[in-house]
Write a structure and sequence with these properties.
CATH topology: Glycosyltransferase
Oligomer: single chain
Number of helices: 16
Number of domains: 1
Order of helices and strands: HEHHHHEHHHHHEEHEEEHHEHHH
Number of strands: 8
Strand order of the largest sheet: 1-2
Shape: globular
Bound molecules: beta-D-glucopyranose
């Protein structure tokens, strides 16, 4: 299959699985992902902005705002508890906002590491990108109260340990989560002039905290107290912009990611990953390609894009592929426990679109087409 066919198929598939509420289903066919995540959703909306589907992105951000507003009381209670130093008595999921919701904005019951702050920073970052790419400035006023509530919430909570972008390690602090918060706060600075000084100060403090505590051996680390690398550290530069792509800290981090986590064009999440045997995540390969374009290595970025195209299954792009497993003995167990791995994963399609756009593979006729 050609890249162009997968580009069109990805747009179609994402629009097909955006619900009437504006939410994107993470993976329509995988039982555990039939919900909407702020993280997956924002990158999906960002891909939609990049291919000219601004209305889809608008609807998603309106959904985010409606969900956050619906849980305002919970957010305000959490903010007060954190400010009073009283957040120890309730478990994370009871006190803090969740990371995934049903498509109509309800919390999902059950045991899940739902206290994750990165999505709250990410949606604010994505919202600013939506305005930049579509010119839809009016959305800011429309969503103002959810924006301010999110900023209050992040300002109160950013230093707390919370689950990482893989929904693990809830008792740790993760540089990539802090980078997402940094990016969200920074992105809102121009749009909240009354709070500009406060936001600028907050962003600078978070950035400095990451530089002071989130590095070891001259590179970034997976979490404070864990010196391993994690491929999501790529996000520190694209898109979160905490450091430039050429920053020596980042260059050394990427070198370590390549050394530990890259096999062919496939990127693993982290060396100790056992989820579905610890396969290679297409969205992370696309991320490496996105980074490559920033540092002038378009050749590898193209190879990665072709590799992703070769991984398409009948139902679409999967979350991960099994060509090289880090913990092969765990694979069958996961199948037994949770079913076949997620396919299609909307986030995989979104990241493919972003990479394709970075490589100039998406023509204006596609960007202007009003696909159903
Ligand atoms: C991943 C998350 C993702 C979720 C939905 C989880 O397995 O670790 O990053 O948001 O799936 O796709």
């Amino acid at each position: 299959m050609a890249a162009n066919t997968l580009i069109l198929e990805s747009i179609r598939l994402i629009l097909q699985h955006q619900t009437a509420s504006g939410a994107y289903l993470a993976s329509p066919a995988f039982l555990h992902y039939q919900y909407a995540w702020l993280r997956d959703g924002t990158f999906t909306a960002y891909a939609m902005n990049r291919v000219g589907q601004h209305d889809s992105a608008h609807q998603f951000y309106a959904w985010c705002a409606s969900v956050i507003t619906a849980h305002e009381q919970k957010a305000r209670t959490a903010i007060r508890a954190v400010q009073a130093g009283e957040c120890g008595s309730k478990s994370g999921n009871e006190l803090f906002l969740h990371t995934r919701y049903t498509v109509d904005g309800k919390e999902v019951a059950g045991d899940w590491g739902s206290f994750q702050l990165d999505g709250y920073g990410t949606w604010l970052w994505g919202l600013a990108e939506h305005v930049r790419l579509s010119g839809d400035e009016a959305i800011i006023d429309k969503l103002a109260s959810a924006i301010d509530l999110t900023l209050d919430y992040l300002a109160a909570c950013w230093r707390l340990p919370n689950f990482d972008c893989w929904e693990e390690w809830g008792e740790r602090i993760h540089p990539v989560t802090l980078a997402a918060i940094y990016a969200g706060v920074k992105a809102m600075e121009p749009y909240r002039p009354m709070r500009a000084a406060e936001l600028s100060q907050l962003a600078a403090t978070i950035r400095q905290f990451v530089l002071d505590h989130g590095t070891a051996d001259g590179r970034f680390v997976k979490s404070l107290g864990n010196r391993a690398v994690d491929a999501s550290l790529l996000w520190l530069t694209v898109p979160y912009g905490l450091v430039d792509a050429a920053d020596p800290l980042m260059a050394r981090t990427v070198a370590e990611i390549e050394r530990e986590l890259l096999w062919g064009c496939g990127v693993h999440r982290y060396a100790a990953d056992t989820y579905y045997g610890g396969g290679q995540w297409l969205l992370l390969s696309a991320w490496l390609g996105w980074y490559d374009v920033q540092v002038g290595n378009s050749q590898r970025a193209k190879e990665i894009a072709d590799w992703i195209v070769s991984k398409q299954e009948a139902a679409g792009l999967p979350e991960q592929v099994q060509d090289h497993l880090l913990a092969p003995e765990q694979y069958a167990d996961w199948i037994k426990r949770a079913g076949q791995p997620a396919v299609p994963l909307l986030w995989s399609h979104a990241m493919f679109l972003i990479l394709a756009d970075e490589l100039g593979l998406i023509g204006s006729e596609t960007k202007n087409a009003a696909l159903p």
